[in-house]
User: Fold these one by one.
Assistant:
Number 1:
Amino acid sequence: MATLNVLILVCLGYVVLLFGVAFAADRLAAAGRGKWLRSPLIYTLSLSIYCTAWTFYGAVGNAARSGLEFVTIYLGPTLVMVGWWWGLRKLVRVGRSQRVTSIADLISSRYGKSNTLAICVTTLAVVGGTPYIALQLQSITLSFSIFAEADPTGLYREGSSVFWVAAGLAVFAILFGTRNLDVNERHHGVVTAIALESVVKLFALLAVGIFVVWGIAGGLAPMMERIDASEIGKWNVDASRWATFTFLSAAAFICLPRMFQVMVVENDDESHLRTAAWAFPLYLLLMSLFVVPIAVIGLDLMPKGSNPDLFVLTVPLSQGNDWLAMLSFIGGFSSATSMVIVTAMALSTMVSNHVVMPIWLSTHEGSASVSGDVRTIVLMARRVSIAVIMALGYFYYRVSGGGAALASIGLVAFAGISQILPALVGGLFWRGATRTGALVGLSIGFILWIYTLLLPGMGGGIIPISVIENGPFGWGWLRPQALFGIEGIDPMVHSVMWSLSLNTIGFCVASLLSFPSPLERLQGAQFVNVFDHSVAPQGWTGSVAQSEDLMIMTQRILGVVPAQEFFQAEAERQNGRTGRLPEPTPGFLQRLERELSGSVGAATAHAMIGQIVGGASVSVEDLLAVADESAQLLEYSSQLEAKSNELSRTALKLREANTKLTQVSKQKDAFLSQVSHELRTPMTSIRAFSEILRDTDGLSAEEQTRYAAIIHDEALRLTRLLDDLLDLSVLESGQVSLNTGDGSLSAVLDRAISGALAGGDGKLSVRRVRASERIQLHTDLDRLGQVFINLISNAQKYCDAALPELTISTHDVGGQVVIDFVDNGSGIPAEAQALVFEKFARVGSDKAGGAGLGLAICREIMQRLGGDIAYLPGQGGAAFRVSLPVAYQQAAQ
Amino acid sequence: MSRKVLLIEDEPNITEAIRFLLTREGWQVETHAEGTDAVQVIKAAEPDLVILDVMLPGKSGMEILRDLREHQDMQRLPVLMLTARGQSRDREMAEKAGVSRFMTKPFSNAEVLTAVRDLHAQASRL
């Protein structure tokens, strides 16, 4: 029997070896040597951390308990590697081109760099990963205890050993996993150590298998007989469990943080995948080769009730082959440690990048400007995260107490982490996938996974048994293991079916219903079309290019002459051939593209040449760029259109203004013509009579007096005209200053009537309704009086009644004071009513000495005062209505 | 021989001044102050000379002249046109319409008398 001391020594020695390998590999990589460190073989071996202690020990146990079902764990990744290597290639390409640090980072990056999503995925990974780490610790402890049982010294204490194992792994992960800040700089040391561990565990399992087949069973043929005789072959294969488990292990292979770490983050060269595509399935095949023989022999040899999970250890031990058992132990140890180290690294990256750093940055705003500071913080966060994750695993192990509760945790973890699959695959292949969709899908899947698998799996630990059996609040249709009344299927199948299908449906529906942000769209395009533009910009190959087509296209874009000149110059450059089209060499095509891009933009030029040359397909990105340029052109043209609309509006305005000006000019001409006429007419009389007085001898005294009177009258008329013109021009220019004062309407009317009648023939009688005139006014009383005088004078001049009479009445019309001036004459003809307020508008043939400006002045005055004056038709005689503004009248006395 | 002039003018003071001047020259002066029926008045009066204002109530002097010239027997009637508007365009219009002499107000009495004498002399020679 090997002593525990030897085992511990061997273990320590092995760990030291791992440290040494990792250290040496890091040194080599740092020195730029050790190309083999980046070989496809190392990559393939590092992928083998898929095979954890759960696989190493558990596969045999699984085979002993459930027959061939264990194969599914190997089948899933094999199917992925063989059948979906192109998908993995895309994943790796995206991961590298986006410098992705973890699966959470990838999901977040794809969906518009959403940290919410990253936190979701991180949470999911930690919740799913912690029990998984605990499982590894348990396997080490169990295998240790096998040796401890046999150890007579009894030094072994279970608890402390697990603690020290956990602590040691944490130190290893911290030392080699957090040396560099940029995770994409890759951890050659860790990867190399893991590769070594993969070799060790494969070697150990093969050794045990060979020992079992040839050492115990006595060769292949007897072994086959024993297998046939055992119960393993008789177990029924449950198709739904098979399909589910195969699918789960395939999904987990892609989604597990540690697998993502080694497959994408640590990937040095995309072509390594090509090797891994066959080498990794081969590794899995070798790992599974002796699982059934060991299980069969174990069942045969070991006493009833012994743990089949430990057959790998106990079978060699029972045969007294201690060194083989020790090798087997080291193999299991390797499986566990490699998984724990990489998982801790991957999870710590996620936790520090997506949880700790955002919180730290938001609480230390401003202080993050010093980059060195942040580096330290990130590294510290990562180290602390590793320690915390290891501690979580340790405490989970301690709390759950190991044993049966952990047995199925591997698949439970698989089911949990598989919830990322829809968002991941959708993100890689479906541009319509949105952040909202991913969040909805992940949340639904995560919650259903916890509710239907994780919680019931813990027995009555967190939720009462009654809930599991009868549903919450007694709602049977919400029973965790029989959702919506679907019963009788395996809990694992049930959970995976519900969580993943509703996850996928939620993801798709929410994606279709939500609208992605521009960044999401951009990232989506870059992810989905990663192969179209992540390669180095390749030169054109013009083997199929048609120079003629290129010429035609260039002519269309550049114009005929420049295009011909360009092609001529190009032809001369090529062997001095003139008069012929140049060969479409890559150089020529590139120059052409540059030339064209000056006219139509880079993307369009690229796409156009691409279409003709056909050497490169037009990528979605190119089309997007074209669309962008078109959008810019559209924008530009719509701006032009807007400008042209504006111009035509301006032109219209100008035309209108011009028309107005012309009208004004015509009006001015007409006005000047009128003024001229009105001035010349009295001047004609004055001149004529003054000449008569001067030149004519023997005029009688009456004649002299009469002609002098005419001259006098006409001179007065001229003066009045000039006064009116000046008055009007001042009123029209708005330069008039109102002399506002207070007074009663009746007083204003009194003055106006006496003033107007004084110059008249006295025939006109004025009737008033004095009672209604008792209104206090606050306005320019002189101007208002001027209006009244004008109206009264007009009645005096133009009223053609035998007994002319003017009625002045004051009314309240809708709160406004109006004063009506109505005479008993024949009034103003309807067609002239509209004109009476125009300048020089004279109605009828009466020459009453006015220049025709009176009413125009009245209108101007009333408008200045804020009131109005209008002709009031239908009153019999001439009728005018003066309206006073409300503001200018005061409360009636 | 009695010479008859018909003065169509709506300004009474101007009418009076011209009447005074021409009466002293030996003209028989008839007046009319309305544009509307001016053509009929001219035909009825059969004057040797017409003095026509442009701005008349009802019908402008231009229109009167144009209508007048449409009548065969009125084509050679001397017409002296007076206007207070004084725009060059009026003169062109008047000449087109067949005016014999065009004068702008205010005029000197001597100008009017000279014009009247000239026009009458021309008409008499023919």
Number 2:
Amino acid sequence: MSAPPGRARPIRVVLAKPGLDGHDQGAKVVARALLDAGMEVIYTGLRQTPEQVARIALEEDVDVIALSSLAGSHVAFCRRLAPLLAEAGLADRLWIIGGNLPRQDHDDLRALGFAGVFPTGSRLDDITSFIEARVR
Amino acid sequence: MNAPLPEGVAPVVNESGLAVQPLYTADDVESSGGWAMLGRPGEYPFTRGIHPLMYRRQPWTMRQYTGFGDAADTNARFRYLIANGQTGLNVAFDLPTQCGLDSDDPLAEGEVGRVGMAVDSLRDLEVAFDGIDLERITVSLTINGSAAILIAMYLAMAQRRGFDLRTLRGTAQNDILKEFIGRGTWIFPVGPSVRLVGDTIEYCAVHAPKYSPVSVCGYHIRESGANPAQEMAYAFCIACAYADEVLRRGLPIDEFAGRLSFNFNIFGNLFEQVAKFRAGRGLWAQIVRDRYAPRKPSSMWMRMIAGGGGGGLTLEQPELNIVRGAYYALVSALSGAQTMALCCYDEAYTIPSEHAQRISLRTMQLLVEEMGLADTVDPLGGSYYVETLTNQMRAAMARIVAETDAAGGIVALVASGAIQARVSAQAYRRQRDLDAGRLRKVGVNCYRSDDEAPNVEFHPYDEAGAQAQVDRLAALRRTRDGAAVDASLRDVRRAAAGGANVMPAIVAAVNAYATVGEITRALADALGRYREPVRFTE
């Protein structure tokens, strides 16, 4: 881990698998890309509830809350997670989501506060540079 | 050794790590191991096929993966596919059912009926298969963590409908070890999970001897990052782990090995896949013969379903997935699959539409009716390239099996997370290769058409339908015999805590209309729950 210039510590990311979706290949690939980019990654493993994601994000004092969803329940999950993150005082952190995310859902996800939306097939460098550009 | 490549000819290495030559001759077949493993179809080592006449006797079973909403929705789609000439059913369950949760569980919120059919009790299966002749149409249940319960429900439903369990055919996926590697619908810890698979195999061998209680899946291991040789090798290691579990109980190999089947992936280089399947049939026959000394030839058969290849499909230019699917069906037919479930062009987006399902079904039908794929057994047999590659793939797979056994065996390597770490590291390298254009993917990193909006019809999530499922479950809990349910769950807990086979107790519980969630909790009380090891180093 290395701290980027001007930062006291490396960028910390919680990477969560929301709901019951078991497709974790993509989440693990992204976790490796973030690690290779010098970030600290707390990977939650499968089957996280919104409450669990918010709690881990708070306890770990992360800069980025990242979700990976491939089974279609992303909007419903984010609708429950967003107020919990806000209540926990994490509205100023970067929220991003990747996975099987149909184009017509992207605006909903952004409106809920997920600034980065990375559908399947996104390039890994695009994800890491998006984070690096926004976390200071 | 192969001659050096001519000046200016770039080397080609397949995904399994084998160098591909510009030309193959009889010398290559000889130097790769010769013709000894070829044999005749229907005879050991079955490289050319498990039956003498293969599709000339009967084309592969066509069995699209289907299920969504509630049992009535799914029953309607089943009837549609059967009316269109489908010859089997392959049931998709929603995630709560797959994870052993009832539809009213807080963790099931937003997931009921979303990616498959919601099942809480035997009543749902009764509705799902209403009016379907289970002798003519064989049914495959894509269920793993809660497979013991769903198999019990299926057998109970069939028996109530008057079908004879002695002759009932069908398949359950029920391969829990691969769920720990990829797909993730595990519930119980690794050891008890393997025991449950053993219980189902043992129970079916006695009570439903034509039923295939396990379909070992290389498929999802490949999706998680394994190369084609690893896909087959790990699947064989897993199949042996289940066989060993059952043999420990004293059941002879010939009582169950013939009912083990496999599910493999199809995406990637065409010749590598065909060689993979041909090589796999020979290697599996060899493994079963050498380790278990069966008397029945059918105990050595690598029976398989193939035709799915989600990892090969693209979000970009989804119509190209129709073309990819046609090649996948071709590969599957050239490889002697017993059953095909062909992926659908829209599945990178959504649950396949009726239209997409029909295109996949028609793709398989036209291979039989128009293209001559059912006319001749193993049509690529004898090709210098395919035979050389088959020999090389078999050797590569055998090496991986030996390495896995030497490193402590597949069960230990899955429990420690070592296999998961290896395949996910490979998936990462593959994604880097795709991003850098070293691995070419049409529509993704070459030949892009960014201006086109995809023409895909999205499957809507039926929130009212999910609520209706929850309401029906509440009504069931009110009207069933609660004391009988409680007693049956106590029996499940007791059987699971003891060493006996849990299946008779589960069958009794489903017949009392105990639910998937209730039976799962009773089992978990005794068996515990799995905790995922997460590691990023091998």
Number 3:
Amino acid sequence: MNKMSFHLVKREPMVWYKNVFVRAIAIIASLIVSAVAITILTGKNPLEVYASMVSGAFGSSLRIWSLVQNVAILLCISLAVTPAFKMKFWNCGAEGQVLIGGLATTAVMMFLGDSLPYPALIVVMLIASMLAGIIWSVIPAFCKALWNTNETLFTLMMNYVAIQSVAFFLKYFVKSGSGVLAPMSEYGLPVLFGQSYLLNIIIVAVLTVLVYIYLKKTKHGYEISVVGESENTAKYIGINVRKVVIRTLVVSGALCGIAGLLLVGGTNHTISTTTVDGRGFTAIMVSWLGKFNPVYMVLTSFLIVFLQRGAGQVSTDFRLPSAISDIVTGIILFFIIGCEFFLQYKIVSTKSGKEND
Amino acid sequence: MLAFIVSSIRLGMAFLFGSTGETITEKSGHLNLGIPGVMCVGASCGCFAEYLYLSEVGPDANYFLAVLIPIIATVIGGAVMGFIFSFLTVTLRANQNVTGLALTTFGVGVSDYMIAETGPVYSKGSRFFTMTFPFAEDLGWFGEIFFSHGILIYLAIIIALVSSYILTKTRVGLNLRSVGENPATADAAGINVSRYRYASTCIGCAIAGLGGLSFIMDYLNGNWEYCIDAIGWLAIALVIFTVWKPSLAIIGSVIFGGLYIASSYITGVSFASKELFKMLPYVVTIVVLVFTSIRDKRENQPPQSLGLSYFREER
């Protein structure tokens, strides 16, 4: 019996334009599927829906500023998780590390805001937020290095410990008992040229370059990729794996702490349990989709923020439940995740009678 | 005190469904971080089906259909989510963490959308799920604890026991565990790795979906709350807490349920400290996780290839 069957072969790395082409197809396919889904669910014209998405993201200068600000924060968290991820340390705890960094910032603003001169206050805020982020990331790293504790699960749990710490802090220290902390704008990060988000954006831009250099050009970055590729190889060539794991997570945690500082000190000037709002998880996808390359990550974080803000606009314009934005984001992510396969493998059909599984 | 135990059991069973489902999935080597999304979708599919059924038949709803239809809808909803996950991770070999997180985003979106369509109160349908044995009240505290529950509670325990038996005592369970420990060896022994991973993930997600249904219809008496995803993460925590054993999870889930609601039953604790109490299930899980890894006992470890995709042609 002549039966067609397939097997998979790993591809040679593709030329860059084919790479872009496959990804573009994936995004277009996902937009078509989302459009069909929206039309079935709501009976609206999908083209109008996409027009409203674009206006939601770029419609006014305020919207553009807020878009870029959101890209900056998401990118900052993605930069933070990238060194750990590249090492195949599945840090799912960025949510908590950012939040605890934000909490440290809040505490400094609240208790030292009056007693310290402004420049010293900013420095203390920076140190406190970084330290808090480091503590949250190093505990799992330490256990991973010493006893090989599963880091994915550990860091996930740490998220909730951070969330409950914030809930406790708010209930305990907010005098009114409402659990809502009024914004303390007077202690926030400095405002440059009258644009309140400009400093955040500059800081993240600088961090992007620094992380790129750290990962690509330094010895530390090299050790991270070796440990990520194969822990055994790393051991053979004399890399102290434990040290690299802990050191990398210190970097990761410190960057998360800075993200917390930017969120609390540079954006909200207050904190709540939902300040991070799932960005810690989204950042993981940004980092992975960007192939752990800070430059690509600028694009992927832009794509995701654009989708989320655009879809938010869609739901207000068409009076749809806001959940539609999560559905569309989910569908698009599935397609982008799925298209990686076609970049890495090719399907070869083998015309033969034998079972090829 | 009695009310506390009964509530712990009712909440705990939502965790039990989730953790049994996730245990079955993880035994095949799949770390499905989409469980929170799966539970959301399961719950909303079940609620939606119940809503349709009740608005169709009105007051003369039949008990069996009113219970069976949502359960079937939930199982299908959960299994579809499991299928998406396995298609991406097994067939397309995507990273499991990333796929799972995307699945959670998607699932929360889908369920919120369905709830926005029907409205968040299902007390009519919930009536059927909290219906219980008529003789429970005659037996005093014993009856309260063991016989005063709705059908999903018993279903959770039965599923946990059956899965525990299948995982540890049958050929299928042995094959499944070998796929999770070392897929290459399993493959060489003639086990179809892909089929086992597909099946275990779809079945696991179907079971986990029931956890969402149980949380809404039983524990919350049909009032939708937007915190099912937090329940989902706790279900994942419970898997670790009970070292991948569904039978232990029956007790573990009640403990978790108790820890989760302890803050509202303990008197003389300040409003703020209650938030610290809610931290307990997570802290306990961390302690267990670290402790089991320090002791390094072989039967208490995560499946060895947990979170890794398998590609036969790769070394």
